[in-house]
Amino acid sequence: MTPDTQTLETWTPRALSVLRIVTGFLYIQHGMAKHFGFPHVAMFDHLPTFSLIGIAGMIEIVFGALVLIGLFTRLAAFILSGEMAIAYFMAHASAANFLTPLLNQGESAVLFCFIFLFVAAAGAGPWSLDAMMAKGKPRP
């Protein structure tokens, strides 16, 4: 292993934590826009709280916050990955543009889906509440 490769491998778990934190922060904004109007997105004005999009916003805030702080990360990320898969197929995939997210404006849904799926598989990384709680537990 070269010194450069060793340095990169040392930073890989930390990079996972940074990816998780940034993704959670960006994702929460979707729910905040839906329920609190910040950042303002005109199409979410007067959104009914218990509509399909309103419930999605609640999921985005709660589970996005869990991903951001790294608490119950694998479960939260898995749920959010599923939410984004559903969002893509319900809101973006049309018969003509099914496999072209660039044309159906579904790129962010696809990216969020697979980033969350990766985080669900890889875990929260060392900079997380999950890692802090695991340090106090005896290992079998």
Essential attributes:
single chain; mainly alpha; 6 helices; globular
Walk me through this protein's architecture:
- It is built from 6 helices and no strands.
- It is mainly α.
- The protein is globular, with a radius of gyration of 17 Å.
- The chain has one domain (20-125).
Indicate the topology.
Blueprint: H1 3-36, H2 52-69, H3 73-92, H4 101-104, H5 107-122, H6 129-135
Tally of separate helices: 6
- What structural class do helix, strand and pairing data support? mainly alpha
Q: Could you tell me the mean pLDDT?
A: 93
Oligomer designation: single chain
For the terminal residues, how far apart are their CA atoms? 31 Å
Percent helix range: over 70%
Which blocks of ≥5 consecutive residues have pLDDT under 50? none
What is the N-to-C succession of helices and strands?
A: HHHHHH
Identify the overall geometry: globular
The beta-strand count equals 0
Major sheet characteristics = none
Rg of Cα set: 17 Å
Number of discrete domains: 1
Could you tell me the strand content as a percent range?
under 5%
Task: Summarize it.
The chain has 140 residues and is mostly helical. The chain has helices at 3-36, 52-69, 73-92, 101-104, 107-122, 129-135. The protein has one domain (20-125).
